[in-house]
Amino acid sequence: MPVVADGRPGVSRDYFDLFQLQPNFDLDLDELAARFRSLQRTFHPDRFASQGAGEKRAAAQLSADINAGYRILKDPVARAGFMLERLGCDLKALEREPVDGAFLMRQMELRDAVQAAPRDAPARAALLAQVQGLEDLAIAALRAGFQTNDLAAAGVAWVQLLYIGKLKTEVAASSEPA
Amino acid sequence: MVLLQIAEPGVNPAGPSERKLALGIDLGTTNSLVAHVDGGSVSVLADDEGLACLPSVVHFGAEAVLVGKPAEALAVSSPRDTIASSKRYLGRDAAEFAGSKYPELQEDPLAFVTSRGSVTPVEVAAEILQTLRRRAEQTLTRRVEGAVITVPAYFDDSQRLATRQAAELSGLNVLRLLNEPTAAAVAYGLDSREEGVVAVYDLGGGTFDISILRLERGVFEVLATGGDTSLGGDDFDERIVALVCEERELSDLDHSQARRLLQLAREAKEGLTEADEVTLYLDSVAADTAPVVVSRQQFNSLCEDLILRSLEACRRCLADAGVAEVDQVVLVGGSTRMPVIAQAVGDLFARQPLDTIDPDQVVAMGAARQADLLVGNRDAEDLLLLDVIPLSLGVETYGGLVERIVPRNTTIPVARAQEFTTARDGQTGLVVHVVQGERERVVDCRSLARFELGGIPPMVAGAARIEVTFQVDADGLLEVTAREATTNATAHVVVRPAFGLADEDIAAMLRASYEHAGDDMRARQLAEALVEAEQLIAGIETALAKDGDLLDGDEREYLNAAVARLVAASEGSDIEQLREAVDATGQASETLAARRMDRSIKTALGGVSIDILAGESPS
To answer: Which of A3, B163, B317, B346 has the highest CB neighbour number within 10 Å of its CB?
Structure first.
């Protein structure tokens, strides 16, 4: 049986180019959605249902790229990862770099608090707000990093967002009714 | 607009005088229907007796194969040869039905044992589809160009593939497999131009589906799907059967008695839609047995847990979709006629459910609209169907765990890759086991396929880099490719269900049907293949004339050579050879097609800036 490698296959296409958008971290999500729909309306394989095999296969590939691009660009964390990779950063190496001690402590405190907090308690809402605050800070740092072309700073913020993402998943899972 | 630049002349769109006949088919567990678009309105096609519903029952008797009502009539007298609800068996494993008395099953591949020998669920479905195709051809006296066939949203890859195989076997060209709830939304969405979030609650005879869709500017996006493949109206009938058996102490009913009682129970259930109480007269089931009266209230409480099961699935689906509320609720399936269902669903979503289209026909009607569009009868600026995969796809990794590659609810088509490596030093081969499902452990998921990637050079454990790519097409059908990076060793499979029919089986069945059909059929097929070849050649010539600069010398030569071989094959009369040449030429034109599409991206988006983003500068 295969073993999951820690790597990820490289991205084959520049999604900003595909959507004909400037490669900025700040994106108008309505505009992105409108472009996504226009592209799918034109290139979805259904539009080539009565054409030759070459068109069908090419449309399936392009349509899959459009779906992948939309999924990545609409999510700030995935979008940032894609931008870093596009600018030559090695994401695998970034993920392995040590994380700021204070951030890690805060992260662990919040995780313990989430596990200790009773379901549906007001305390949980307060915790969620704190996680959200942490996320907002990291997003702001990410934005600043891209704006000033400080890729190292953007990379640090991106890794922090991966941690926060995991925390949010745990909070969501522990909030579900048993 | 851009589409027209890409579309090849002579292929589409058709003028009004040459509208192509495309069918929408609802292949149901209990009943099947066929619909088509006629001059802008959708109509469901009825049989000679005026009945739209074809009971999904096939009788495989020693003398004849019967489909629909005549087959249903024989269900009681010859249960062994009469197959009902065969959709439940499509693309599944006999082991999943251990303990079932009827129908009598044969394993590997799963087949029903009848007087005509063993019959697979794919062949049963093919008989039903063929009956519907003939009904359309006879009523409309035209050739059927293609069909959209609906499947439950919850169908996994094996079940979808089995459906497609059945269509091929019945001689239908499948334009698209469409999720049933999506088809229902198409029927309503196109008719009323709604925008917003829609829940489609589909309780059929044997399956329950819930879908949350978002409709916006003509795009139907499936946000999430859920359901239960073994919950349906039949279960409600069973509750009445159980009640009657208990009250009248009926046990050890033989098969015929059980069928009669089931029929009475179904009539009682239907009666309770209008009446407050019904009486079941049991003389035909067992002599000297007093009638049983069932009130609607009693029935509702008997079935409460079934309804709650469906509502629970609705809540999960809402959570998956990430929406708190919906704007519209569509009811699909005859079982939603039960007042208690409409009430419960309306309460859950806090919306009065839509029911203006017959819930038995709405799916076939939506499918017909989509079929009409796909066959090129309309310039389809106004509609695009985006679909999602219903269940996660992954591969088995060390320790019997599943590594998910494509999570459920991912919009299709999709291509996703994951890197793997070897577990042992010097390992030169790797078994890729493809599974579908949401559980962590492989044993709890559905096994789809297993293949081996060989030729990996001996390396230390963890050094090899094996990229496994999953490609899911717009029908939800999967292809998997594994590639080792350092050697480029590649293995590729179009996933065929572990418990289904092999391609060779289908080919053999098709050959048998051709031989059966005789010379007329062969002549028709040759003529069709010739038309396809001509269209393909004309299309490539136009594309080359317009965008020939997109290919370099070698690429152009390669394509020209393929076209030349196709021209040569068109001059002969060997269908197999011609078909192969059409396929090969189609493949050869993929590079040109892909680059032409890339070239037209800007044009495609140019329209957005002007139409939708008025006032904003194009980037």
So the answer is: B163
